[in-house]
Amino acid sequence: MLNTDLAELRQSTIARGVGMQTQIYAARARNAEVWDVEGTRYIDFAAGIAVVNTGHCHPRIIEAVKTQAEAFTHTCHQVLPYENYLRLAERLNAAVPGDFDKRTLFVTTGAEAVENAIKIARAHTGRNAVIAFGGGFHGRTFMGMALTGKVQPYKAGFGAMMPDVFHVPFPVALHGATTEDAMAGIEKLFKADLDPARVAAIIFEPVQGEGGFNPAPTDFVRAIRALCDKHGIVMIADEVQTGFARTGTLFAMEQHGIAADITTMAKGLAGGLPLAAVTGRATIMDAANPGGLGGTYGGNPLGIAAAHAVLDVIEEENLCARANELGSRLRQRLEAIRAATPELAEVRGPGFMVAAEFTTADGQAPNPDLVNRIRTEALKRKLILLTCGTYGNVIRFLAPLTIDEAHFAEAMDILEDSIAAARAE
Fold it and tell me: How confident is the model at residue 33 (pLDDT cuts 50, 70, 90)?
């Protein structure tokens, strides 16, 4: 069957709200390569949006899933528990930043992890309000939408959001927003609209994902930690996209030397299987009553087995160091391109979570049209890229950390040619 045939089938079967950046229908994939139903091969710089950090179909992960599938695929941990669930919780409790006793909960998606983090913070504090940040993304459920700091396409048309969610600016130097601006926004909020004694949690991404790969400055992270400590607020780090070696450390918060009270994670945790987790201070995590947390598929045995293998691969193949190496080389190549490309306003991001933001040549306005042309040109040349940012003017680079040297080099050449071709249009 052809991609065009499947595209027609999609029109008659799938809800319009399920967006698609390409009309490439995957047939198989290995590491950083994907082949479509027509046999065309692509280099994947999306990795399922930072999900297959360990590459498509890593042999260790496939073997772990096969072994588990031969034992059992589902019992519901709340009915018949299993040891691997406990052992993975033990590993995450040790790995997540913070020198304190921790507890972990497994769920299925990143949005579900965020929802549960808010539930737990409210149960612990007895408060309702939550502070989030402009440009942040936390999911498509109603609480996830409410927390997300971007209207289009996530909130438009869905009616009233969840109450008691407040947004303040996120520090983005290129856009003229500093840590001081962000903290002043919170102080203004406290003066005008919100008693800090009503705030259950402050949630932020250590590197904003959908918002444009904007890294949180360390002084901002420290200021949020101090504010939370002052007012008894739960600090939540949303590491759904930043987790599992993507930023050059297992978790991005390690780079700030600051521990959140609760950390949410998903995406790269299970190498492509649906698994998410919430890990946090035991005194906070244990606030919910038995039965208040969980879900039928939460901590599915196949996902748990895959996650154990992912953690093994990250350690044994030194993927944190690999992320730093690849990211450094990517940034160097982009900076070389930038020297002759006035529209390339900034290259940023830690580890292999790198972004390139494009503006008009005079730097006065976002340039989403150019970014879309670059993405389209790259796709013609068989390189899959993703865009992001509040204005859709950012290209984000999310290749697997295990990408072969030859494929990385090939992708860099395609990227440079695509930028040149897009600018020439």
Answer: very high
Torsions phi, psi of 387, nearest 5? Answer: -110, 165
Residues 6+ apart with CB under 8 A from 204: 132, 133, 136, 170, 216, 224, 236, 237, 238
The DSSP element (H or E) to which 423 belongs, if any, is helix 405-424
Cβ-Cβ contacts under 8 Å for 336 (sequence gap 6 or more): none
DSSP-derived 3-state class of residue 384: strand
| Predicted structure pTM score | 0.96
Q: CA-to-CA distance for 72 and 200, rounded, in angstroms?
A: 39
**Token pair of 283, please?**
């005194």
Question: How many Å apart are CA 296 and CA 107, to the nearest integer?
Answer: 9
CA distance to 68, 179, 253, 344, 374, per residue, from 55 (Å):
20, 35, 23, 29, 24
CB 262 within 8 A of CB 52: no
**Considering only CA atoms, which of 67, 73, 58, 1 is closest in space to residue 312?**
58
Q: At what angle do helices 405-424 and 319-338 cross, to 10 degrees?
A: 30
Which positions are catalytic?
137, 238, 267
